[in-house]
Amino acid sequence: MRRLMLLRHAKSDWSRNPSADHARTLAARGREAAPLLGAYMSRHALVPDKAIVSTAERTRETWTLVADAFARKPATVYDERLYEATPESILKVVMETAEGVHSLLLVGHNPGLQELAALLIASGDVEQRQQLLEKFPTAALAVIDFPIDEWSRIHRHAGRLDRFVSPRTLDAATD
Q1: Is residue 120 a part of any domain in this protein?
Q2: Does residue 87 surpass a pLDDT of 70?
């Protein structure tokens, strides 16, 4: 069994030099949302063995704030291939993951993450699947499980959506 977690960066700040997309930092709302998501992940044992993070400043900042909630810090790799990536490019990164990694987190961008999730998910809660297809908001997390023993065997429509959460759904939840 393998678990893939797709985390879109938290809300970024467009007010500072919007032409420098790669260097864009988080907005105040993003700096509030990321730790909440990290606490949720920690509380629900969603701590990855490894995190692969886009090299954009907003993804790096999101990951730092999320990872602060974990007692055990996952191995982290910053990979420029996740920046402005197509779902196929992201899938290639996933397929290259070492056999010993059972739980993998990708911190990246839309539309790539949303399109990859849509490509991989075949089952799971119907309502959450529909929400994911309609919108993958900032700081949203999709958790997808696969009945495979190696990442290289991952393929389209092989995953089951375990959960899809966002800061808004966490605000509405009691846990």
Answers
A1: yes
A2: yes
Q: How far is CA 30 from CA 127, 147, 161, 168, in A?
A: 25, 33, 25, 12
Q: How many angstroms separate the CA atoms of 162 and 1, rounded?
A: 13
- Quote the Cα angle for 120-38-43, to 5°: 95
91 or 172, greater pLDDT? 91
- The CATH number given to whatever domain includes residue 65 is 3.40.50.1240
Domain around 156:
2-11+23-172
Position 174 pLDDT exceeds 60: no
DSSP 72: S
Q: How many structural domains does the chain have?
A: 1
Answer whether 3's CB lies under 8 Å from 144's CB: yes
pTM of the model: 0.94
* Residue 16 domain flag: no
